[in-house]
Structures are given as C-alpha cells and as structure tokens.
C-alpha cells in the first residue's frame, strides 16, 4: 500500500483543521477519483465544524470546554483515519492519488538503505566457571533489524554457528568449557548481506 499518513500527533489544533479542510476540498474536487468516500465528506465536514466550535469555546480555559475540545479532536482524527483507509484502498501503491486526496506521504528513511556498516567493538565475556556460556556485546546500530552472532572453536575449519538476536547483546551457551572460541557479528538491515566484524577470541569457563 501507499505511505499515507495524517501526522495528527505533530499538528496543533489549527494545523489539524487546515489538514481536514484541505482533504475535504481536494476530495470534493476529485469526485471521479473518489466517487463514494467512506465516511462521506459530509461526515468529515460535520466533525470539522464540531471541532472548530469546541476549540473556540475552549479558548476561555473552561475545564469542561477543554475536555470537549479533546473529544471532538479525537472524533475528527478518527474520521480522517477511516477516510485515509478508503483513499489507501483506491490508491494502492500510487502516492500521487494520496496527494490528490490532500493526505500526506510518510517520509521513508533512506539513511539505512544499502550495505550495512561493519559492526564495531565486539566484546566477549565468559560467564561463571562451568557455565559453558559467553556473553557477547557490540555497538548498537539504529538501522539493524537483527544482529547475527557467529562462533566456532578457534583454529578449526568448522563452519561458523550462528545465533540471531534482536538486541546488540547475546548469550551463547552450550559451549565446551576450557576451550577457546572465536566470535564475530554482523548487523542485518534492509540489505540482508552480512558485513562481519573482526573476529575476537575468548576462553569458555
């Protein structure tokens, strides 16, 4: 689907009114694109009018009026979101149709596209004696969807064993005690191709 958004949390009361007015006007002017809005534009206009009137009353700082304004704002946001679902259905993946309806397009974060950076500062700390566990930690990266930690006996030609973690920390257990292992880690981002850190080693207690 499209990247339709309302951004109601970032809008003041006046900005939200302007957004609603824009959507009502543009959709009315694009009746061919949006022949049967759900909810109807009359419902949107009624919710907008109610919110505008409540905002005027709340300007006098009356507690009850302020509560009503909040309620009417929530009702308007609900109508806009329901209308957004209708527009999203009509638009499919065509963002130009979303814009034609007066809605905004969510900005996609492109800073995390492409090859993931090399993981840095991998640390391995053995757990208590006899545990067969090693605690691993690397620098967190905001673009990481997962962290893939790998390990094997140091000096062996065995394939790396892997363990996924949703965090920048990980516990590897079931290791042979008093043996030395080597470890590495990679971020898994939008591009799933790995970029492993330098390998480090640690004895398992």
Give your account of this protein's structure.
This protein is of the alpha+beta class. 34% of the residues lie in helices and 20% in strands. It has helices at 13-29, 41-58, 63-91, 95-100, and strands at residues 4-5, 104-105, 123-126, 134-137, 146-153, 161-165, 169-172, 180-188, 200-203. The strands form three sheets. It has a four-stranded antiparallel β-sheet with strand order 6-5-8-9, with no helix packed on it. It is elongated, with a radius of gyration of 27 Å.
Describe this protein with a few key phrases.
single chain; 205 residues; alpha+beta; four-stranded antiparallel sheet; three-stranded antiparallel sheet; 4 helices; 34% helix
Write the layout of secondary structure elements.
Blueprint: E1 4-5, H1 13-29, H2 41-58, H3 63-91, H4 95-100, E2 104-105, E3 123-126, E4 134-137, E5 146-153, E6 161-165, E7 169-172, E8 180-188, E9 200-203
Antiparallel strand pairs: 1-2, 3-4, 4-7, 5-6, 5-8, 8-9
Helix pairs in contact: 1-2, 2-3
